[in-house]
Design a protein that fits this description.
This protein is α/β, with parallel strands linked by helices. Helix content is 32%, strand content 24%. The chain has nine helices and 14 strands. It is globular. The protein starts with a helix and ends in a 5-residue tail after the last strand.
């Protein structure tokens, strides 16, 4: 399902030439176009490719990724990095030990609203950040069969929250439901605490008839609301007008201020992701001197592994009914 979009964007992105496509199940969406559809990763490697995108089911990420690493091929693997932390660690070590670019397709980082938000937070527009809250809800996707909603959708919010805050998760607490008759969870309500003190909350499910993708960052100067479905970013400022209403004035909080819907450029996130991957490969080859802005680089496999660790901690928290702490060094 994602492979067809990768194929389209690779054809449109300067610096790439799509030369081969492999899928053991064929090409129902016609993504290969005039190219032959190969049957395995070994056939793909035999084409002499320089880079690859691995958009196979999560359970096959390790097998395909390790084959590509053994062949010395820089790879962008779809999120999550692997089906388990152990498999993810093997991928990290395989790519890092060979000096290869290994990236994970956490595409939400490249959403224009979140790119703009990340830059504004870095510039201090909110002052100190207190909380990051996300809501990611919608109908069940038939494309997902091998993982639950935490590893499929929740990993988006885990990654983007840590990235926006520039901090790792210290602890998580989660509750899940299994309402759709499958072995994996289909709804989660989770809270977390980051190492820098920011608290997080995440509502993620496959059980809602409405589709929602919202990130709210609250800080000492106000709050940003990013809608990643529309790529809109809105700033809610704390008010500065004093009130004459004594009962309200005695409450030591904030008041409503200006609300600004910010005008931002809106490039396609998948294209920005591929441009970052291209630039990382060129930099690894010594063919690119100017590094990308810090918030536009690739999501490394080690970062993808850390996100998977948090996801598995959420699953364990829900299963065992307790708060799970994450090792600071993991």
């Amino acid at each position: 399902m994602m492979g067809r979009h990768h194929a389209r964007v690779l054809r449109e992105t300067p610096g790439f030439q799509l030369v081969a496509v492999a899928d053991a199940y064929g090409d129902p969406h016609g993504a290969a176009g005039p190219l032959p559809v190969l049957g395995s990763v070994q056939e793909l490697i035999a084409e002499g490719i320089d880079v690859a995108v691995c958009a196979v089911p999560t359970g096959l990420h390790e097998e395909v990724g390790l084959a590509l690493a053994d062949a010395g091929i820089h790879t962008l693997v779809e999120k999550p990095i692997a089906a388990s932390v152990e498999a993810g660690l093997r991928l990290v070590e395989a790519f890092e030990s060979r000096g290869l670019v290994g990236a994970v397709g956490h595409i939400e980082r490249y959403n224009p609203a979140l790119q703009s938000l990340r830059a504004r937070l870095a510039a201090g527009d909110l002052g100190r950040v207190y909380q990051i809250a996300t809501r990611r809800q919608g109908p069940f996707p038939a494309r997902i069969a091998d993982v639950g909603v935490i590893k499929d959708l929740g990993t988006h919010d885990i990654d983007l929250s840590a990235w926006l805050a520039q901090s790792t998760y210290e602890s998580v607490d989660a509750r899940t439901t299994f309402q759709s008759g499958r072995e994996h969870e289909d709804m989660v309500a989770a809270t977390g605490r980051l190492a820098n003190g920011i608290i997080t909350s995440h509502l993620v499910n496959w059980l809602s008839p409405m589709k929602e993708r919202v990130t709210v960052v609250t800080g000492e100067k106000g709050a940003f609301v990013a809608d990643t479905l529309t790529a809109d970013l809105t700033l809610f400022e704390n008010g500065t007008v004093t009130t004459q209403w004594d009962s309200v004035a005695n409450f030591r909080g904030v008041s409503e201020g200006n609300v600004t819907r910010l005008a931002i450029a809106k490039p396609e996130p998948l294209r920005v992701e591929h441009e970052a991957f291209r630039d990382a490969v060129l930099a690894a080859r010594g063919q690119l001197q100017s590094a990308a802005a810090p918030h536009v680089g690739v999501v490394s496999m080690r970062e993808g592994l850390q996100t998977l660790r948090v996801a598995e901690a959420m699953i364990a928290s829900a299963r065992e009914g307790r708060t799970v702490r994450l090792d600071a060094g993991s």
